[in-house]
Specification:
Length: 494
C-alpha cells in the first residue's frame, strides 16, 4: 500500500505502538504510575553526612544533540606524575524511583527505553528521566560518583565510589565536541562560557585515549558499524542518516567502560551480588576465521580477541570505507550480549568484545533497568544496609532483562525496517550491491552498501554466508510489516 508522504510519522507511530504490544512491552504508563508521578514535584533533596558536595567541579554532559535524559556527567583533575583523576557522576534515579513502586514496576517490566522512528517509549516518565532525575544544565542533583585514578599508560591505579551532589555546568553534544577535538571546528560556545572547561575536556580526551590504547593492547575489539536513523521533513520521511563514531563518543565510551568495571569490582570486593553484562566466546568463531582468510589473514583456531583485534585494525587501515561492513559481519558472528547474576564466590564470564572480565551496566539508570538495579545494590553496599534483592530475584531479573532487551531491539528494528520500506517502496526493480549480514535456517539477510538498509534475500540465497558481498534486486516491500525482500542476481561487482 502506497501512502501520502504526510502520513509517514503517524503510520510509524502506530506501527511502533503495535510492535510494543506484540513483543509484550508496555507502551503506556499505568494509572497507578501516573498517580505516583503526580506526587513527585521536586528533585531528590540533597542532604546527609555521606553526600559530598562536588557542585563546584567542572562537570559537563556530552551526549547526542537531541538527548534530554542525561544520565552522566564527567570531569577530570590533573595529578602528579602524569596521572589523571577521572570522575563520572551517574544520576541517582533510585532517590526518586522506589523499588516496588508502580513507576518501578513499569520500568522492571520493559527494562529499557525503546527508541523508534515513530515515538520514544521511555522506561521512566519523562517528568523524571528528562527533568527531576536527569543531570540537567545548571541544576543541583544527587549522583553516584565513580572516581578513577588513571596512570600515564592508561592503567587504573586507584578507584572509589561515593554519593555526591553535582551541577552540570555545560550541556555539550558529541558532534560539536568531536569537531573541535579533531580540529574541524571551534570550541562549543557552552564550553567556552565556563572558565577552565576547555583544558578539562583536553585532559579528559588525553586520559580516554590512553585507557582505550591499553584496552586494545589487551584485545578489545575495534568495531565501527553503520547506525542509521530516519530524517523527517515535517511528518515526511526524507532520508536515512548514518550515525558515525567520533572522538567525543569515544571519550564517554571509555569512561563508561572504566566506571562499569570499577562498579563490578566494588560490589564483588564487598561480597555483594551483581548483574553482569557478558559477551561469551563467539559462537561462530570458525566462520570468523574463514572470513579473515577471505581478507588474506590467518586467525588461531581457538577464539582469541587479541588476534581478532589485530586483524580488524589492519583492515580498517586498508579499507576504512568498507570497514563498517566487516565490523557488522563479525558482530553478527560473535552473538548477542546477555545479563547474568554473579553471586559472591561465582566467576561470571567476561565481555569478549571489550576484553574485560569485570563488567556491569551502571551508568544509564534513567534508560536501563539493570543500571537501576546496580545502583540500588551500590547504595546498599555503601550504607552497609540489607540488600534490595535476593539472589534468586537477581537471577530471575538478569534473565528477564536479557529477554526484554531483545524484545526492545526487535521493536526498534521493526520500526526501522518500516521506515526503510517507506523510502524504498518506489524503487522496486532496482539493483544494489550488498553484504550478507545473517545466514541461518530462518533466513538470509543482506544490507545494501549504498543505503544503510537491511532486507531478506528470498531468492538465490543458497551457499552464501555472513560477510559475502552480493548483487541484489529489490523485489518487494511491505511498510506495515517492515518487509524488504531481495533476490540475489550475482556477486558484487565491487
Amino acid at each position: 500500500m502506497k501512502m501520502d508522504d504526510g502520513q509517514h510519522r503517524s503510520i510509524l507511530q502506530r506501527i511502533a505502538h503495535r510492535a510494543m504490544l506484540q513483543r509484550g512491552l508496555l507502551p503506556d504508563f499505568s494509572a497507578e504510575a501516573l498517580v505516583e508521578l503526580g506526587r513527585i514535584q521536586a528533585p531528590a533533596a540533597i542532604n546527609g553526612e555521606q553526600v559530598h558536595d562536588l557542585r563546584g567541579l567542572l562537570w559537563a554532559s556530552i551526549d547526542n544533540d537531541d538527548s534530554r535524559d542525561l544520565d552522566q556527567l564527567t570531569a577530570a583533575e590533573a595529578m602528579p606524575g602524569g596521572k589523571v583523576k577521572i570522575l563520572v557522576a551517574v544520576a541517582d534515579v533510585d532517590a526518586l524511583v522506589y523499588n516496588g513502586s508502580a513507576i518501578d514496576e513499569h520500568a522492571r517490566h520493559n527494562t529499557t527505553s525503546v527508541y523508534t522512528a515513530g515515538r520514544i517509549f521511555p522506561m521512566l516518565p519523562e517528568k523524571l528521566s528528562t527533568d527531576l532525575t536527569s543531570l540537567n544544565f545548571n541544576e543541583d542533583r544527587l549522583a553516584i560518583v565513580v572516581e578513577m585514578v588513571i596512570s600515564a599508560d592508561g592503567s587504573l591505579m586507584d578507584s572509589d565510589i561515593y554519593r555526591a551532589s553535582v551541577r552540570n555546568h555545560a550541556k555539550l553534544a558529541y558532534n560539536s565536541v568531536a569537531a573541535w577535538l579533531e580540529g574541524n571546528g571551534s570550541l562549543p560556545a557552552a564550553a567556552a562560557a565556563v572558565k577552565g572547561l576547555e583544558e578539562n575536556l583536553r585532559l579528559q580526551d588525553k586520559a580516554a585515549q590512553v585507557m582505550k590504547n591499553l584496552r586494545h593492547m589487551h584485545g578489545a575489539l575495534s568495531f565501527e558499524t553503520v547506525e542509521a536513523r530516519p530524517v523527517f521533513d515535517g511528518d515526511e520521511i526524507r532520508d536515512l542518516e548514518v550515525e558515525k563514531r567520533n572522538w567525543a563518543k569515544d571519550i564517554i565510551e571509555d569512561f563508561m567502560i572504566g566506571a562499569n568495571g570499577v562498579t563490578a569490582r566494588y560490589l564483588s570486593s564487598r561480597k555483594i551480588p551483581s548483574i553482569r553484562r557478558v559477551v561469551r566466546t563467539p559462537k561462530r568463531w570458525e566462520r570468523i576465521v574463514g572470513l579473515a582468510e577471505e581478507y588474506g589473514s590467518k586467525l588461531p583456531n581457538a577464539p582469541d580477541s587479541k588476534a581478532l583485534e589485530e586483524f580488524l585494525t589492519r583492515e580498517k587501515a586498508v579499507d576504512p570505507v568498507g570497514f563498517p561492513d566487516l565490523s557488522l559481519a563479525v558482530i553478527k558472528l560473535m552473538g548477542a550480549g546477555e545479563y547474568i547474576a554473579e553471586l559472591p564466590g561465582d566467576t561470571a564470564p567476561g565481555h569478549f568484545g571489550l576484553a574485560v572480565r569485570d563488567y556491569t551496566h551502571s551508568t544509564a539508570p534513567n534508560r536501563r533497568y539493570p543500571d537501576l538495579i546496580t545502583q540500588r545494590l551500590l547504595k546498599s553496599a555503601m550504607a552497609e544496609s540489607s540488600l534490595p534483592y535476593s539472589n534468586n530475584e537477581l537471577d530471575a531479573l538478569a534473565k528477564h532483562c536479557t529477554k526484554e532487551e531483545d524484545a526492545a531491539n526487535k521493536v526498534e528494528r521493526q520500526v526501522r525496517k518500516s521506515a526503510a520500506a517507506m523510502l524504498l517502496e518506489h524503487r522496486i526493480g532496482e539493483q544494489f550491491d550488498a553484504i550478507v549480514t545473517g545466514a541461518a535456517e530462518k533466513g538470509t539477510w543482506a544490507r545494501l552498501l549504498t543505503i544503510p538498509i537491511e532486507g531478506r534475500v528470498v531468492h538465490g540465497f543458497e551457499g552464501i554466508d555472513v560477510g559475502n558481498r552480493i548483487r541484489v534486486e529489490l523485489i518487494h516491500t511491505d511498510v506495515e510489516l517492515g518487509f524488504i525482500d531481495f533476490k540475489k542476481i550475482g556477486l558484487s561487482i565491487h
